Amino acid sequence: MSQEQLREDDAPQPEAGDAGHGASDQDPAADAGDPLAALRAELEDERKRADASTLGWQRERADFSNARKRFERDLLTSRFNAKVDTLRALLPVLDDFERATENLPAVEDGNEELQVWLEGMEAIRRKLLKALADAGVQPLDPLGEPFDPNLHEALGHDSDTDMESGLVSATLQKGYICGDRVLRPALVRVAG
């Protein structure tokens, strides 16, 4: 082999992608384009992963917010139900006070102790009524009003009354409501 042939054999051979280009003919942007394209593809993949993570985080945040709202709503509902149950338990006590005050015996002038005791019982009844009113309880005494099966419970018909048919002719027991919840329907008789 000659010296010239050895030099040609030792010279760097062009790679497959650079066929036809000499060392001085190479485009610097072409060498930089491949790594840049790879970085762009990697960046796009990372953006997709970040978007997926953000979307998952947003869903979890919305789920948490909805769960918190549902918990608060359920808490308010259970508090209101407990309040309603307590108020229902007090209604028979109020009924007893109402009956007792309707049937008070006549007090003799000389019996001051009995008069003071009766006034005390009346004060307790008023205090109970005020506490119920402060809690939002309203009495239902529908005498003369149209019968409403949502608020009243009919125990019978009065055919010998001069009231218009379908009106409440007598209230046998007051009903009570709290907000839009019926604590106890009024027991009534209806004109028929």
Using brief descriptors, characterize the structure shown.
16% strand; 192 residues; 6 strands; 3-stranded antiparallel sheet; alpha+beta; 3 helices
Structural overview:
The chain has 192 residues and is an alpha+beta fold. The chain has helices at residues 3-10, 28-102, 112-134, and strands spanning 137-140, 152-158, 168-173, 175-178, 181-184, 186-191. The chain has a three-stranded antiparallel beta sheet. A hairpin with a 2-residue loop joins strand 4 (175-178) and strand 5 (181-184). Helix 2 (28-102) packs antiparallel against helix 3. The termini are far apart.
Strand content: 15-25%
Distance between the termini: 133 Å
SS-based structural class? alpha+beta
How confident overall, as mean pLDDT?
A: 83
Radius of gyration from the alpha-carbon trace, in angstroms: 45 Å
Characterize the largest beta sheet: strand count, sense, and whether it forms a barrel: 3 strands, antiparallel
Alpha plus pi helix count: 3
In short:
By secondary structure, this protein is α+β, with helices and mostly antiparallel strands. It has helices at 3-10, 28-102, 112-134; strands at 137-140, 152-158, 168-173, 175-178, 181-184, 186-191.
How are the secondary structure elements laid out?
Elements: H1 3-10, H2 28-102, H3 112-134, E1 137-140, E2 152-158, E3 168-173, E4 175-178, E5 181-184, E6 186-191
